[in-house]
Design brief:
heterodimer, YibE_F (chain B), transmembrane helix (chain B), UCP031503_TM (chain B), membrane (chain B)
Chain lengths: 371, 257
């Protein structure tokens, strides 16, 4: 009976999730009236013949001009039809091919000689995001239930804090970037750990290890920066920079490494707490060694997680640099050096967290005895 | 000495101090992964089909991360098989999503950085986007697979005769324990890198509607969300593979004793 009850409420949950998800996805197909920007749907496409293009580096590409008949979906011209042109290339770095049924944003919609004219501003992509978010939530709640809910909650809360910190940074006109994002990092850590572990001794040990590990890693790195005079770091290669790049880079590094250091610390602390429960007579030395042995087996994979995240982002522009006749070394300096520095600093934080977390947890729990 | 070399040396020394031989292997795996990643870009630049490069580099990176991260073959073989399957499944999802979202290449926010560059390079950026997205998820998949696999190996060691349903249940329980911290690792790993982009958006007062249709933002979100999905899929698939390999794993305990 009990089991039946659980499964029927579970099925109800599942149904609600599926219905809400499908509803949200359907909504994005018909949300044109919620957009201020003019939106249109492609109704007919006529392609010209592809034209061969060769650039000064002997790259061969093909460009095609498209004539699109589109129908306005919102605004005062709703329902009106017009023609726009589009050019796409095989490589498609900044352009793309449009097909019948695609929805596109327009700019400069105006009437001239009784005809509507407009320029394509971009492709409508909101459905994809909604679909993927829904898929993540569905899988998470299906598989993990309570922990899944908490993980989700922590991501949502952290996103909100992140947005608030950025607003604050802009309000202060980038005066105290490191202070703002350093504080944010601390709040992030506390919130995430309370959500995952609750307000316990375990959480305090993890918090201490995360904060110390990250802080010492940053200090060591700054010292290395000083000693080597930041040779080979090209802040000008940072993307989307609207403020002074150096503090922003340090803030990015700090935030980027935070999750992994937290991950490492909480695994170590959890192991030591479990061991202590199994063997209440364990000495500080034994607990410390146990923590270290867990820590060193996860540090390699964790450093690689961050490394791949930081580096994959540089793939696109590195390829462009190589195909524009730049040397391998220059391509690395202009695209990958900042990602590499971030990976290395994060790695230092992850490694430092091992002795710190093991030590803290061992001191908190261990019996006095020979080390 | 350049800063990168100095930081690399510091990391190497620390890894060896803390982890001994295992620390050295971990550092080596980082170097190797860097080499393979760079080599992948060079191969694509030489017009090797991106899908082929993705599959081979992906397999190599998984192998390096898993087999050099841990010595216990009972754990690593299961984790490797499971992460290969997840990579395959994720590849199908990512190919579909990338063709749907069209977030390849660069956005209008990149224009300034691209000045003077020839964009017509004759290599499909859509295919490159698939490569980029899949490679960014591999580390997280390998890590989750190893965590679940190591936990299950311990359980099999203590209770060699549990059935597959129990293995799956234990696998999900281990998954539940790591999911919170793993999501945090990914969230911060990715969002740390978006800081400048988000300041750009906020500074120029992009509306929510503009942001969720923005090419760069959607591209980055696809990376984050597919990484989450990859980690989630890894948990049951690792437990399933461990169930299939139960006999050989339990047998190898016997040999060790």
């Amino acid at each position: 009976m009990q089991k039946l009850k659980v499964s029927s409420s579970f099925v109800r949950w599942l149904l609600i999730l599926v219905v809400v998800g499908l509803g949200a996805i359907l909504f994005t197909f018909h949300n044109e009236s919620f957009y201020q920007r003019p939106l249109a749907r492609v109704e007919q496409v006529r392609n010209e013949k592809a034209v061969k293009q060769t650039d000064e580096f002997k790259n061969v590409d093909w460009q095609t001009k498209q004539y699109l008949k589109i129908k306005m979906l919102n605004g005062k011209y709703r329902g009106k039809k017009l023609m726009v042109t589009n050019t796409y290339s095989y490589s498609g770095a900044m352009d793309q091919r449009y097909r019948v049924g695609n929805e596109i944003f327009l700019t400069r919609v105006h009437e001239k000689d009784g005809l509507l004219h407009a320029t394509i501003a971009g492709y409508k992509r909101d459905t994809v995001i909604v679909f993927l978010v829904w898929l993540v939530i569905l899988l998470l709640l299906l598989m993990m239930k309570k922990q899944g809910n908490l993980a989700l909650l922590s991501v949502v809360v952290n996103s909100i804090l992140f947005v608030l910190a950025i607003e604050l940074d802009l309000k202060m006109q980038a005066a105290h970037v490191l202070l703002i994002f350093g504080t944010l990092a601390l709040i992030f850590t506390i919130v995430s750990l309370i959500l995952i572990l609750g307000l316990t001794k375990r959480m305090l040990a993890t918090l201490g290890a995360t904060v110390c590990g990250t802080l010492i890693a940053m200090l060591i790195s700054l010292l290395v920066f000083q000693l080597t005079q930041e040779r080979g770091i090209y802040y000008e290669s940072m993307q989307y920079v609207t403020q002074v790049p150096r503090p922003l880079f340090l803030a990015e590094t700090l935030l980027g490494s935070l999750g992994a250091v937290m991950d490492e610390s909480s695994d170590i602390v959890a192991t030591i707490f479990e061991l202590r429960q199994l063997d209440p007579t364990a000495t500080k030395g034994q607990l410390f060694m146990a923590g270290r042995s867990v820590g060193k087996s996860i540090m390699g994979p964790l450093v690689n997680v961050l490394f791949l995240i930081f580096m994959a982002d540089t793939f696109t522009s590195s390829l462009l640099y190589l195909k524009n006749g730049n040397s391998w070394g220059y391509t690395f300096s202009m695209n990958m050096c900042l990602g590499t520095v971030q990976s290395l600093i994060s790695g230092i934080g992850i490694v430092l967290a091992i002795p710190i977390a093991s030590g803290l947890a061992a001191i908190l729990l261990g019996k006095k005895g020979k080390a | 000495m350049s800063t990168i070399t100095a930081l690399g040396l510091v990391l190497m020394v620390l890894m060896i101090l803390v982890g001994g031989k295992q620390g050295w292997t971990a550092f080596l795996s980082l170097l190797l992964n860097f080499g393979f990643l760079y080599f992948a870009i060079v191969l694509i630049a030489f017009h090797v089909p991106p899908m082929f490069v993705t599959l081979t580099t992906g397999t190599i990176i998984l192998a390096v991360t898993i087999f050099m991260g841990e010595d216990d073959l009972k754990t690593t073989v299961t984790a490797f098989y499971a992460s290969l399957i997840v990579m395959g499944l994720l590849l199908l999802l990512i190919v579909g999503v990338e063709h749907w979202a069209m977030v390849q290449g660069f956005g209008s926010e990149d224009s300034e950085d691209l000045e003077g560059m020839s964009l017509l390079i004759g290599i499909s950026y859509l295919k490159v986007a698939v490569t980029t997205t899949i490679l960014s998820t591999l580390g997280a998949i390998a890590e989750a697979a190893m965590a679940v696999s190591a936990g299950l190996t311990e359980i099999l060691d203590a209770h060699p005769d549990i059935d597959n349903a129990q293995i799956m249940k234990s696998g999900m329980a281990i998954g539940g324990q790591i999911i919170g911290t793993t999501f945090n690792t990914l969230f911060f790993g990715f969002f740390g890198g978006f800081l400048t982009l988000f300041i750009w958006f906020a500074g120029l007062h992009y509306s929510l509607g503009t942001i969720i249709n923005n090419k760069i933002f959607v591209g980055e979100m696809i990376m984050v969300l597919t990484s989450f999905i990859g980690v989630l899929l890894t948990v049951p698939i690792t437990a399933w593979i461990m169930g299939l390999r139960k006999k050989s794993v339990v047998d190898s305990f016997g040999e060790n004793k």
